[in-house]
Amino acid sequence: MKQESSDNLLLTFAVIAVIVSILGAGVAYNSVSNFRNLITGFVVNTTTATVNVTISSNVLINFTTYNIDFGSGTPAQAETTELISTGDSNSPAGLDFDENSAGFVLENMGNENGSLWLKTDKTAATLLGGTGTFKYNVSEIEPGSCPKQNVTFGLWYDVNTTGDGTLICARFPSGDGMDTLRIDVNLTFPPTTTSGDKGAIFTAKIDDSNEE
Questions:
Q1: What's the pTM?
Q2: Helix (H, G, I), strand (E, B), or coil: what is residue 208?
Q3: If exposure means fewest CB atoms within 10 Å of the residue's CB, which of 91, 105, 118, 146 is most exposed?
């Protein structure tokens, strides 16, 4: 009987020891987990990387519509012939000159604003001779394309062959939707204008160093 009681006591101690060991392991695991969460660098590791790109300045304008052609015809005999690229030509019937409703289209295609200049290689005298006139006007195709006008848009001006020509815009911006101008041409000449192929070159220049 005494032996059986002793065995039961030992068994009880063994069970208690197992339970204590299990509880101790649980407490130890929980303590380690909490301690690990307190050490931020132990939980999260970060590293960084970079990407770089250098965008160069691009000063670029382009005549996207670059030809005005009135065709061929005979000057009026009793009045001045007028050819305008806006489609409003006063060319008497039967003279065969072509109506033209498309002016030059000039666009800032770069990524820089700049001052815009316009010149031609010929004056009215060298292009047409006599009392002919050679004029142009400028208008905005996209509003805001010339926020600092140096000429009055819609008015006709004599062409300029000197230096860089005429300052059209103190600021010709590069932003999409606000970077496109139209340039129309007006030619008038009397019946005595000499025959032959006659042409002139318009040159547009943008200068970002003088942009205001």
A1: 0.75
A2: helix
A3: 105
